[in-house]
Amino acid sequence: MAGAKLKAQRATPASQPFPEVKVLVFDTFGTVVDWHGSVVREMADIAVQCAALTLETTQKLHAMSKNRDRLNELTEAVTRLESESDAIFDAGMKALFLEHRAGNAMEFIIGAEIYDHLEKVIDRFEDVANRVNGIMVEHL
Question: 139 by DSSP, 3-state: which?
Fold first, then answer.
């Protein structure tokens, strides 16, 4: 693509992450997973919310004593969101199984892998929140 010009894209505000995204992934067989309004979209939204909360948490760690109450609120919010994502994950896996139980096993495997990866991302944010709580218990 010699001579091709790249179009610059503006960053989107954090309050509306990825508003123009309609497709999340392609599997190796070309299947498109449309995430608009799906379990994947809900879990991705939770991951973005957890990322924002974790960013604020890390920004407040330098003054733990002063920000103790807000840090507790932030870590509790991440924990609540992770619990919500667990319920979405479970319901999504059930629906995925029911949709593909008499059909294409590969479609189930692909969907399950996507759900699993998103769940792991959210679990890591909870790990960070738990670590921050541990630090606060040790130092405050």
Answer: helix
